[in-house]
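thread: overnight batch results

M.L. [08:02]
morning all. the overnight job finished for the chain we discussed friday. pasting input first so we're all looking at the same thing
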Amino acid sequence: MKYIRTPKPKRERSHIPARLNILFFFVFLLLAALVAQLAYLQIMNGSKFRADVDSTDSAVVTSAVPRGQIYDSEGRLLVANSANSAIVYTKSVGVAAATMRKTADELAKYVTIDESGMRKRDYADYYLADKDNEKAVIAQLPKALQTTTDTSKQYKAEVAYAVKHLPDYSDREKTAAAFYKKMNGAAQLTTVYLKDRDVTRDEVAQVGEHLTSMPGINLGTDWDRSYPNGKSMLSIIGTVSSEKNRASGRNRQRVPGQWVRPQ
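M.L. [08:03]
and the structure it wrote out:
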């Protein structure tokens, strides 16, 4: 008896190239690594990262806002707000005196203010804000004051020396010193007005163009109270304080028996 041998059918080769298989393998490895990283972050260390986020400090920056308008019983506007352009400064945490002086010098190129209320002490603070000037003044102090660890006492001696040896400042430098006084007197994370009256369009444009070179400086708005129907009710309605009455221009504090050095 004869047997007829039938050939075995040939297996069809895969149409997927080897390079594509390698690519799929690497994609699988990347997905596995991503899953492992998510497990590490969410499962193993999720509570730690949540605690870190919850412990993050939040800071509140204060600034002026317009007061409410007042109407009478018939809906007539008695007191309104009129907006004025202003140059403002927000003092950041830990900003150095030298940085504020540099910012004040830059701002004085574009904005002018009245510095008639400046005192020699104010100019001395501005002078000592320059590190080179402060080093030169310290070198003139007695040895005991040069090596003292009492910084308040040392700075008081520096101011006393600087007041007697102030240079002749130009008008621009006097303006910069006035800006520095207000900036240094501001509390941290508090916005103060450097100029809130008679700000010209050119000053607004110049400051807006150079904001990146003046950290903390910004354009703002100040509001005056206006009385569309006259001021006959002013004694009842009352008034609000002006910038002249604000304490933002103080650059030092006097404590009984202690001098606090400007930051």
